Design the sequence.
């Protein structure tokens, strides 16, 4: 149940960011789908990397790569929909903003779901 609520919250955050940034509804949907898929990848890798001491740094690196992937994919989407790119940020700020959003989602997921388990003492 906690995971469902987490992903609903993440989907709401992604949808709001896509809706307010993209100029058309079609691009907002494409952006939301891309960010949701990339958030899944970053969250999965954050869970795999969470055992080390530098897990947040490694998650940030994965997020930056995913941010650049998002920016390139949106270039293709803008070309495919023949949308005006006038209000779009340059590639570097757009990729870093997407990377920050993805890093927050992935890191928060690893904090919420990968808490250390309490060891139960046996009475023997």
Sequence:
């Amino acid at each position: 149940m906690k995971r469902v609520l987490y992903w609903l919250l993440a989907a709401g955050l992604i949808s709001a960011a896509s809706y307010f940034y993209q100029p058309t509804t079609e691009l907002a949907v494409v952006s939301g789908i891309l960010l949701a898929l990339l958030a899944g990848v970053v969250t999965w890798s954050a869970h795999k990397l969470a055992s080390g001491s530098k897990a947040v740094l490694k998650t940030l690196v994965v997020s930056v790569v995913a941010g650049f992937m998002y920016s390139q994919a949106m270039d293709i989407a803008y070309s495919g929909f023949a949308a005006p790119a006038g209000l779009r940020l340059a590639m570097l700020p757009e990729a870093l903003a997407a990377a920050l959003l993805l890093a927050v989602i992935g890191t928060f997921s690893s904090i919420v779901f990968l808490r250390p388990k309490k060891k139960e003492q046996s009475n023997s």
In short: The first helix runs from residue 2 to 21.
